[in-house]
Amino acid sequence: MQLRNPKPLAASYKCTMPSPRPDCVFGDPDAPGSALTHASDTTTATSDDILTAPTHASDTTTATSDDVLRAPTKLFRSGDERFEQGDPSTGRPRLPVGYSLELSGRGTTFVRQLSDAYPKHRPTLILLHGWSVTGALNWFRVYEPLAEFADVISIDHRGHGQGIRSRSRFRLVDAADDVAAMLHTMRCENPIVVVGYSMGGAVAQLVARDHPELVDGVVLAATWARLPRSARQTRLLHTAGAVAPLTKPLSRRRQLALLARGFRVASRPGDTEPLRWFATEIGSAELPALLEAGGELARFDSRSWVSGINAAVGIAVTTLDQVVDAGTQHVLASQLPQARITHIPITHAGCVTRPDVFVKPFVDLIRNVTMEAQSRRTNRKTHR
């Protein structure tokens, strides 16, 4: 990943390497507790696993700013050094090594990165996850296929996983600004393609709108320009946002208990028991921020400005989606006539439960958008 200096960095920032976390499962992005349908030979989880979830940024070792700049080179030099090994007994897959990254004036976030020193000038993909999950949960199926042609970075959004903790209300624009701050902090220079799934798609649209100088391409999957106001899901998201203030005075343990209750309610009859990895990842979130994020999603409306995005664009429509229906996704596509569109016959959770259907067309779409983004970058340089 090439580095640049578009803006001066703060004098120092910190990168912390978390100690091994209790292994934990994955189910449905944006629907905590739904089961991973192909979960054989795994240890099952209960809502109690959420109650033992790790706290944010605990048991870490602090490094200097020089260590931060060297960290990707040391971590991702070759072979298995790029990965944290999985644990089949809990359903935890092999994942790119993750580390905490301090963003000056914003807080400490958590990223996973899979990159190669060679060849240089590879494009950079920024993966943005859906509501209530984490970067690892949303993207573990595609880290390695995408790394065949690009450097890959995922971030935990604020309030989710090990993302930034803030006393301020969760706002999607702040999540987008976190992504921009991460790109500046990591000094990413090569063509950058922002990839968003569900809530991550809303964040990706905002990154492209508010920080166009950083974005060469955008890929949006299972997402929307505006959710139908009368839809049951939209009403539930509004309700989540409304009750969020009531959860802020609660103790961390009480918040975890409520997350556990939601985990039980969201599990459907007949589901395979979810894996412990999923339960622990979900339990690392901050409940008030999750609920506030739900309210933000219900209010999000990009119809008046999304057509102005000046970047290569791809849209993956999840045609069997019961959370964001295909019609809603097509409304977004109609606002972006320059977009490449791929239809993938999966539900909202299919990015995890149906890798046989999801991975290849999704990776191909990203590859094509990335090639277009590289071409656009080259043309801009030629005409300067």
Global morphology:
globular
Strand ordering within the main sheet: 2-1-5-6-8-7-9-10-11-12
Largest sheet, strands/sense/barrel: 10 strands, mixed
Gyration radius over CA: 19 Å
Topology pattern, helix = H, strand = E = EHEHEEEEEHHEHEHEHHHHEHEHH
**Helix content range of the residues, please?**
25-40%
Poorly predicted ranges? 1-47, 50-55, 57-78, 269-273
Number of strands: 12
Q: What is the percentage of strand-forming residues?
A: 15-25%
Structural class: alpha/beta
Output mean pLDDT: 80
Number of helices: 13
First and last CA, distance = 23 Å
Oligomer: single chain
Question: Short summary of the structure?
Answer:
The protein has helices spanning 48-51, 65-75, 135-139, 143-147, 172-186, 199-210, 232-247, 252-266, 276-283, 287-299, 326-335, 350-353, 355-382; strands spanning 15-18, 60-62, 83-84, 95-96, 98-103, 107-114, 124-128, 151-155, 192-197, 217-221, 312-318, 340-344.
Task: Based on the model shown, name its key terms.
384 residues, alpha/beta, 10-stranded mixed sheet, 13 helices, 12 strands, 15% strand, globular
Describe, in plain words, how this protein is organized in 3D.
A ten-stranded mixed sheet has the order 2-1-5-6-8-7-9-10-11-12, sandwiched between helices. It contains 13 helices and twelve strands. The longest helix has 28 residues, at 355-382. By secondary structure, it is of the alpha/beta class. The chain has helices at 48-51, 65-75, 135-139, 143-147, 172-186, 199-210, 232-247, 252-266, 276-283, 287-299, 326-335, 350-353, 355-382; strands spanning 15-18, 60-62, 83-84, 95-96, 98-103, 107-114, 124-128, 151-155, 192-197, 217-221, 312-318, 340-344.
